[in-house]
Design goal:
two-stranded antiparallel sheet; mainly alpha; about 725 residues
Length: about 725
Amino acid sequence: MSPPSSDARSARAARATVAAAIVIGAATLWAFAGAWGNEFVNWDDDYLLVDNQAYLGLTAAHFRWFFTTTLGGHYQPLTWLSYAIDCARSGRPDPVGVHLTNVCLHLFTALGFFFVARRVLQLAGADGNADEGWRVRTAPGECGAQDLPSNAITLGATLAALLFALHPLRVESVAWATERRDVLSGAWLMLATFLYLRAVSRRGVTGYRAALAGSLACYALSLLSKAAGVMFPLVLLVLDVYPLRRLRPARGGDGDALRRSVWMEKLLFALPAAAIAVVAVLAQRESGALRSAEDLPFSLRLGQAGYGVGFYIWKTLWPAGLLPLYEQRPEASAFDLPCVLGAVFTCVATAGAWWARRRLPSLLAAWTVYVLLLLPVLGFFQSGPQVVADRYSYLSCMPWAVLAGAVGARMCRGKGIWPALPAIALLVAVVAGLGALTRKQVGIWRNSQTLWTAVLERAPHTGTAHANLAAWLNRRGDHEAACTHAREALRILPGSRVAHIALGRCSAELGAPETAEAHFAEALRIRPDDEPTALNLVNAHVAAGHADQALEFCEARIAAQPARPLWRLTLGTLLARRQRFAEARVHLVEAVRADPAAAEARFRLSVVQLALDDPAAAIATLEEGLARAPDDALLGAQLAWIYATCRRDDLRNGVRALELARKAMKREAEVRPQAQRALAAALAENGDFAAAIAALREVLADEPGIASAASRERLQAQLAQYERGEPTRE
């Protein structure tokens, strides 16, 4: 029987590739199907995606922000751009869209990894010629052993991609919205690797340069998504040694030229890597996340590094008890048993891989790539409270998946399906088991409660988990439980800013303003630029009866940041509450001048201008604000009220008041009581007292919408006026 033609072999290979892609895609979507039903969590998602408005748009100003910000301690302009694209349709962050994009990017990375793994297995022949060791046997483009059939190599690459894509260690990078940077940078890096392998196998100069340029461009895009691939040039150098075998020991002639080209290639990749590495460290330092030498001594960093090297291999083999946060204990030491065992393992594994380099060069290559990719996250430039993190395995554990694929390929190298059936069944069982674990792990990221509850169930002494759960409980209104978790967090981590803020908030809600003052002040001492906490401290001062302290605090902030309108607005509001209207007007005018589009500052200024009996100025302030923001319900309701109730006949305008009030009623729900009161006044001004009475009675029926007993009395007095057929005058 004649062997199949090259066209038949190509068609069969294409069908196998399509089948592999379908299997990888279906399995990945099955494993991560629950991810796009997850919510945002209060671990970076809140302040990076939910509360942050800076990335919501695709204008030139937004692009400038993408490429200049280091918010969150990362330089990731392409990641910000991807979030902006996700939110372009709705104009707000949508957890379904963000998580779905994360899953799709992970799938793209897995498919890219399949093609990279297949090419590596082709070149290495799954160690079929391992006796050749590190010596060059063939020219570039001709390397690769032929002892494995193409179907076995495709099967091995499929196994490698599935082990990578479905492993529970991947869940943190995929199911955590903030970690979009992992999957996006990983997708570009796989494309860069594939194009590099394609470039070095090209015989023609034009094809080589085009593929190499494409690889370099994709690498740059990966770095602009996250700096995780800064060690990629050294990874390529390892690939040049094995399996590409481009660094020949022979001297002279073509060998010297090849070596020079290899080193020049690496220089091209090293330049953007070095630049991004510097930017990444500066970003961490600027954000305050980079831990100091006093906080984390070098000896402990070294011990942590040894522990990390062993941790990811162990969790790859036994993915049980995975945590979203492995917190560094305050009393941790470099001589703790896990650190010592990790250091011993690292030394023994390195020596073993070197000793076996001639028989198993793939083992040394995989070990070297693993350590290189882990190096930036082993703690030498530590940021955050974690000692290790599942997400750090996203790239670094890829070489182990390739090795597993090589083993699977050799197990299935026999001709026909039946001899390989037991091996295939075993591999399917392993992959299915990993997928099931991944589906379960994805559920942990459902929301903030499930996230931190899962951490505390597995590691009860995780202070950050207690603090973040307390913050979530505060938002839900369960302040008693929040207080319990915040106090436990401070017992474990006395310097936890999040815990101090959480305890301050629940203390304020539970009627202990002095306690709230103390904890907000401590949180502000830890991070002086935290403006929300500074505002909470001002409110706590006022609630505790320390209004003078609140005023002094605002004045100090203005002196330190004279260009910031926030503190002018805050001070003006406090002065107005103390009936110091003339002083309040000065600060509120400055706040409006600094930020003309600030609706709240204009609203407060109009209230003060009315208190100073200057309704014409109040109308001008509000009209200018509505010219800038025509749909602002707060400004519209306030202006409608003035037009309907002003004592000056030359300023009163019932028609305009009715128009503004009806428009405000259709906007923000929280402004509805004010808008409805203004609508009642406008209706009365236009002589429709029956409708005015009905509108005001609806306001009075809304018990939660009335701020105080005094407000209810004013509304009832207004209602009595309408029942007598009298419009409101103020």
